[in-house]
Each structure stands twice: as C-alpha cells, then as structure tokens.
Amino acid sequence: MTGPSSRRPSRRQLLGYAGAAAAGAAVTGGTVALGKETPHAAEPVVARDLSPYGDHQPAVAAATPKHAELVALNLLGSTDRAALGRLMRLWTADIVALTAGRPAPGDTAPELAVPNAALTVTVGLGPRVFTLPGLTTAKPRGLDALPVMRHDRLLPAWSGGDLLILVGADDAVSVVHAVRRLVADAAPFAKAVWRQTGFWNGTGPDGKPVTGRNLFGQVDGTGNPAAGSPEFGATVWATGPEWFTGGTTLVVRRITMNLDTWDELTRSEQERAVGRKLSTGAPLNGTAEHDELDLEARDADGRLLIAENAHARLSHHSVNDGRRIFRKGLNYVHDTGATRESGLIFLSYQADVAGQFLPMLARLDAADALNEWTTTIGSAVFAVPPGFREGGWLAQRLLS
Amino acid sequence: MTGPSSRRPSRRQLLGYAGAAAAGAAVTGGTVALGKETPHAAEPVVARDLSPYGDHQPAVAAATPKHAELVALNLLGSTDRAALGRLMRLWTADIVALTAGRPAPGDTAPELAVPNAALTVTVGLGPRVFTLPGLTTAKPRGLDALPVMRHDRLLPAWSGGDLLILVGADDAVSVVHAVRRLVADAAPFAKAVWRQTGFWNGTGPDGKPVTGRNLFGQVDGTGNPAAGSPEFGATVWATGPEWFTGGTTLVVRRITMNLDTWDELTRSEQERAVGRKLSTGAPLNGTAEHDELDLEARDADGRLLIAENAHARLSHHSVNDGRRIFRKGLNYVHDTGATRESGLIFLSYQADVAGQFLPMLARLDAADALNEWTTTIGSAVFAVPPGFREGGWLAQRLLS
C-alpha cells in the first residue's frame, strides 16, 4: 500500500479538495474510483457549520445534534502506531471536508455532502489503543472498560471498541453519508463492530434551545455545567498526559428503557423516581428547571421531597464530592421485526472517568430508583483526543 | 369493555382535550392511567403544523417529512367492522390532538407532544379489511397484494398488513411518541407486525425545498406531478367507490440498495443506469432537473442518451400509457449488530394500483438497469381513506 505514511500532509492537502482527494485515493488504494468525475465543490455556506479546528474537538461542547450515529471499530491486527497515525490523517481530511459540507476525499456519493447541516465528527480511542507498542505510556489515567455493575446486562454486541466515530447533524442523510465515508476510509485499518443511531430534540416549539427530553418524557441533562463556563472546562477537559491536554473521555452506555412498565406508574410516582417534575424538569423542591436541588427539603409530613433513591439526588454533584460530568443523551429505538426496543444512548464526558464518573455510576447502580425501568446493555469508554488546528491532525501529538 | 361504540363522538369530544381524554381512557380500558394528572394543553403554535382536516388525508400531498415511521398492524380476530370503526374514531381523536402538538387522549407522556413539529399521520387499510363481513363490496378496485416480481425477495417480516400508520414530522422524538400512542390505542383491536423508519432531506442548504436524494446519491422523485396540479389530482385521488372518493392507494416497497457494488461503478455508469445526471437530476439529454426526458435523443455515435434499460425511461409516464404515480421515498438504514442494510422505503400513491402502478412495476422488473443493485424485500398495499372534517372521523363513510 502506498500512502502518505512517511510525510506530513501539507495544509494545502488537508484543506484543498483536490489535494485531499488525491491523498485519500492513494491511501485507500483500489477501494475508491480514481477515474471518477468529481463535481466542483460547492462554496460552503458556513452559517450553521462548526469550524473543525480548535483546542478541543468541537462537537463535545456543542448542543446535542438532532441525529447522531456512533460507530465503534476494532483495529485490524496489522494496524500499529504508524498505521493508526495514517488513519487519523485520513479521517482529519475527511472531517475538514465533510463538516464544511464538501465531499470527503475520494467520496463516492459527493452530492450527499451538503453544507449547512451542522455536521460534526468526534473521534475517540479505546483502551486497547494504549496497549500498542509505543503507546503504552500515553494512556490517560483511568481509561479502562468500566467494571460491570450489578444492574448491567451487557451484550458484547454493544460494548467496547478500539475506535469511536460519533457523527452528528441536523439531517440524517448527512450523518449516514459521513459515517459511510469514514468507515470506508478506515477499512485498511479497522472494522466496525457496533453502530448506534440516536436522535434528540433540543429545540423548543419557538425555535429556541431547550434541554430536551428522553423517551420517558423526562427533561434530561439539566444538571450539566454550562458550556464555556470555568466549571465546564474543569469538568470536561483533561490536563494530561501532555498529548491529551484539551482532550476528554467519553463513556457510552446503551440503556434500554421499559416504557410499558414506566407508563403504569402515576405521574407522581414517576416524578418521585426522578426527583424532578415531568412538566418543567424543576427539582421537586422548586418551580423552574434550573432551580437548585434542595436535598434536605421536606413536605408537611416530614418526608424528603427528593427521595433518598431519587435519580436526581444520587447523580447530583453535591453527593459526588462536588465532581460533575457533562452528559448528553440520545434517544434511540431499535426494531427487530415487530419488536421495538426503546432507550437512551447515554454519553458522559469528563476529564477523568475513574475520578468523576465511576463513583456516581456505582452510587446509581446501588440505589437509583430508575433501575427498575432501565437496564444498561452496552458500555464503552474512549479517550477523545484534543482538537486540531489547520494543517494539524487528530491525535497528532500522540501519533507523530 | 365500555366505550363509545354505541355513540358517535361529538365534535366537542373529538376536539376538546378533556372530552377526548375521557373518551380515549374509557375505550382503552385499563391500559391508560385514568387517575394521572394531565398537564394543561399548551396553546398550539400552528405555523408549521398542518390542519388534520380536509377532503384528503393531508400528508399525502405534502412534502416528504424529515423523519417518518410506518407501522403495519394485523387485526385481532375479534375486530369486526364495528370495532374497526371504534379504532378509527380513537385514532381520529389522537390525530387531531397530536398534529396540533397536543397530547393524545390518555397520553402517558404528554410532554412529548410539542407543536410546530409538522407532525402528520396517514392511515391505511389493507386488503384483508375488505374481507370482513359488511365490507366486502366496498373494496377499492385492484386493492390486492402485488404479485411477486421476478427480482423480488420478499420477507414476510416486511410485507402485508391489515392497517397502516404512517407518521411523519420534522423531529424524530415526535414521530416516536405519536406512533407509540397510536399503537397503544390500537391494542384492543390490532397488533403491530412490522415497523419501518426512514428519513429524507427535502431542504436545500439555503432552506428552500428540493427533491432530495436517495442513498445512491440520486435525485429521487423528479418525475412526480406537482402537488395541487390537475395532473396530481388525476394521478392520486380515487373517484370511487363512493366512500373512497378523495382517498388513494399506497404501495410500500422496502428496497435494499447495495451501496458497495454501486460505488464500484464510475459516475457515468451510474448515470447511464438511471438515465439522469447525478449532479442535478437532469435527464441525460438535458441540463436542469425538470427538463423533459427526450427518449429518442442520441449521442454522436448514434446511441440513445437515455438507455433502453435506464430507470428513468422505464418508469416514465410516456411509456406507461401516460399513467403516472406519485412517489415519495424515505431513506433507511437498518442495523443488526455491526451489519448495516441500506435502502429506500419506496412509497407510491395512485388512484388505482392495478391500472397505474402494476404495469410500471412489471416493466421495471423485466428490464430496469437498477435491478442489479436493488432488491425489494418488503411489499404492502393499502387503501388510504379520504380525509375527515371537524366532527367527522377516518373512514366514516365506510364504517358508520
């Protein structure tokens, strides 16, 4: 295989469509048709498309997309540190093009790349990457598969993975197209092992952003630190090891939700399990979504308003030594013939999985009232490398 | 079971949330929690929500939604003509509420009903409905399961069905919520046998409507008659039997598309198979999407520009005795673990399945170049009753 393994792609190659197309075609060998007519790239309309560049991968702090697909891939046996670097350079070129609404290098369906779809791509590295020769000392602290919780019913089909692609957009066609390109370009290096598609409605009827609701009808994600706040930075961005500064870790948990038994509850039973009001997401001691939880508040009979086993209490940062996570859920439905499984693709970003996420997970597993209607069937953990700048590439400090 | 079977729901019951909720709760018996607190219905924001009323079910002529789900249900043995009428009245009340962004009667997740999602519901009746006592003489002409074509590889899991619900919206959460309500309310009468979810991008980067593309990258649907034109009416709306006037028939075909082998073609090979340009959807004899097909045009070497087996030729109304269909595709992906199936949920509306659709289907089956990359794995046919007016209900003229 010929490829750009021995040279750094120039800024022109990464940014110019023609140059990037040639680089991509060379690396993927016979799998793309070099002789194809490629249309002129449309002038991108940048109004709603995020820049692919920055200190951080840009989708992490952005709003949850309307549609998303996650694909986990396992490395082929032949993929060593250098090959992984080649893949990251290929993906970087793909991401720069696709997020601007331009065809990826060697794109076989270039018309499906459209600007203004707010397409984003986030890439993660699973724990096994850090067992490759040359990478063992670079492993972020605590980046290990999560221990199996008592309530977990993990299926291998939804768990683990050496690499993650998380593509989001306002438009499902754009998501499917981008994923197809990224997975195709990875073929010499890695093979898809699971795919999860999800959706979210983070826009109110008046067009303004809202937190959004899961399929139980709950407002889901109220407790998050505000993007851009100092608290957000401290929660999400890793400060080491050096290559990983500005990166984060991502936990992906596939949680089935039993809508049928949930629907058998009264609304007050549902609200008691969560500790928040269904109507607004306000804590049961308050009236507005972002009111502070009062974990000591009691009703006239002396009972805690937010029960001991309420989800909102057990997941609150005040009972987690002040440590927070940044969570972004995606609703999913998965059909097998006439049978539908419904649930949440739970995504949690944090600087430190072991320090921030695991204690909370253990506490929820031990006592969360919601465990009666939810079951985690998939679990995976990834290091999300920092962002890249023009001319740079994903995980460059790790792999160059 | 108590219910409104012996009385016609009043306009107030169908339109008023409180009245409709009581009616719905009574009919579905123990399956909804009567004692639940129901939130005040929000004032609907009607800007983007279609009226549920009219001569026709409103989604038929409307643009393809961004997201849609189709559910086919089979009648329970106990569901006779009268029971089917009860179900249609229940669904009508659901549809009136849900399309305005209000909770359905007895809604167990009322907060998931949001206005301005452009939600629509279309209901269809499969051929077996017209074998029920009292309905055999009402069967629309030609409403039979399609004959199995030579290239078909039909799976029972994606075929047939006594009833159809087709829910579309701009937002996937709204679709999932509406489907859940409609299927739950149908539980005493019918059981889901297949579900298909699809998506479409009918909006250009500048926000203006476009025809949209399938996952081969083709502009798909250019040949349709313009909604609202006399030609559209003649193509789509049935004129009999009397109860069915203003109705239409809907063919649902699940067509897998082999993206991998398609991608091995050059662009000119792809365009030759379709007979249109990938860039614009223009016929190979033209330059703009809506240019007329010239089926006699030849290149400098005397070869037909639009090949004898090109899809655009064989599906063109001029080779179908001038008869047209109105087609609306939905892209789909369906995952089983790491394996992805991609394709198109092909929807064709026409006044007369046997007269308009079948001859074209037979011609395509015999010779369409696209048959090499596509396989139909599901097939179903439904009569789509006319619309209803305020105080009326779905299929009222058939079932009252």
TrEMBL record, chains A, B:
User: What cofactor is this protein dependent on?
Assistant: heme b
Q: Which PROSITE patterns match?
A: DYP_PEROXIDASE (PS51404), TAT (PS51318)
Domain annotation Dyp-type peroxidase N-terminal: ranges: 57-199
Instruction: Show the InterPro entries listed in the entry.
Output: Dimeric_a/b-barrel (IPR011008), Dyp_perox_C (IPR048328), Dyp_perox_N (IPR048327), Dyp_peroxidase (IPR006314), TAT_signal (IPR006311)
Record's Pfam families? Dyp_perox_C (PF20628), Dyp_perox_N (PF04261)
Residue ranges of every copy of the Dyp-type peroxidase C-terminal domain listed in the record = 212-387
Keyword Protease in the entry? The reply is no
| Protein name, as recorded | Dyp-type peroxidase family
